Amino acid sequence: MSTETTNWAKQQRCGCPHVKAVLGELANWARPDGVCEFRKVSDIAFVTEISERTVQRALKKLEDPVSAGGLGLIRRIGRRRGDGGIAANGFELVGYIYPGDTLTPTPVSHSHPPRCQSVTYPVTSRRGRGCQSVTPNKDLDLENNTPLNPPKRGRKIRLAISDDWIVPALAELPDNAKACASQWPDGAYAAQAEAFSQYHRGTGQRRADWRALWAAWVIKNHEAVMRQARAGGAPAAQQASTGLAAKVEHAAAKSLETSRSADLHDALREALGAGVWASTIEPAALVFADDGLRVVAPTEFRREQIEARHMAAIHDGLRAIGVGVDWVVVECERAGKRRGRVA
Q1: Do residues 163 and 48 lie in contact, with contact meaning Cβ atoms separated by under 8 Å?
Q2: Are residues 29 and 115 in the same domain?
């Protein structure tokens, strides 16, 4: 047994715990010169607690050269008994340099490759049925910074609609959707686009192709838009046929808004985007008091939205218009009482 051979075995990359265990057992019984004269398969299987068949496969993997898909870390040594008969084979650790050898140059270790290189190591499956060659990081080629395992063909990544999503031009729609939208009255296309973006931002749904979904929306809502046009109704984002973008309720306190309120509305529309502002901030009243700001929401749901998501934007908007306040409070008009205060 030799500490040097055991340490050498620990530094080798085998790609499979079974193969590594067999190599470690051979190194544990090797002499300081790297030769293990005899070790039965059954003894190795008993120590490593794996089957004899698995030990035999691991020995073959360790012995086969790299060009044949193996590791090339051991070499069989023929042995003969004292009477001239053939004895069991021994094993030599290939690449191991024992301390007494001063002639063989020390090989360069690649057990820990640089991060910028793509070095191939052999690994096996969990069931131990054969081996395959992969890079140290199986998900990323560090040199090219590209995925090595791209998504399967035909599978698209689903993404949420972005805040800066822009409805495609009428000419870019498929033929069926273009034929429907071309019959709509002025303003209906933009109104439906606003309803579409607000609804999907509110639900947080993810889709692979938002343009295709918009085309389907146009076809689905065509009858409702035309029916509304024949009835003489103004096209509005709140009138989507799904009923999910119903008429927005405004706070009665909006009558108390001033020019400073209008300036703050403009700043918040620019910061949050027209869709988010129209669905959450615009229905609320921004009422300035002597030393603070009251944000009066029409419903409890709107109050919770503003208080949870947009308080930072309101403070930034106040700084943008040059108005200083000591406090900002968000109220629900229906509840008739203050529910929170932010200094």
Answers
A1: no
A2: yes
Distance from the first to the final alpha carbon of the chain:
73
pLDDT digits (tens, 9 = 90+) for 223-236: 888 887 777 654 44
Output b/e per residue, 65-77; b: 16+ Cβ within 10 A: eeeeebbebbeee
Domain contains 141? no
Q: What is the DSSP pairing of strand 292-297 with strand 146-147?
A: unpaired
Q: Which domain holds residue 43?
A: 3-134
235 and 257 both lie in a single domain? no
What is the secondary structure of 5-46 as a DSSP string? HHHHHHHS--SSHHHHHHHHHHHHT--TTSEE----HHHHHH
Model confidence pLDDT, tens digit, residues 292-317:
999 999 888 888 889 888 999 999 99
Task: Give pTM, 2 decimals.
Answer: 0.33
Same domain? 127 vs 7: yes
For 279, the 3-state DSSP assignment is: helix
Place of tokens 């035999």: 56
Q: Where are the alpha helices (DSSP H) in the chain?
A: 3-11, 17-28, 41-48, 52-63, 175-181, 188-203, 210-231, 259-272, 274-276, 300-309, 311-320
Is the same domain home to 78 and 128?
yes
C-alpha distances in Å from residue 248, one per residue of 266, 272, 279, 299, 301? 19, 18, 8, 11, 12
Residue 26: name the closest of 49, 54, 2, 52 by CA.
2
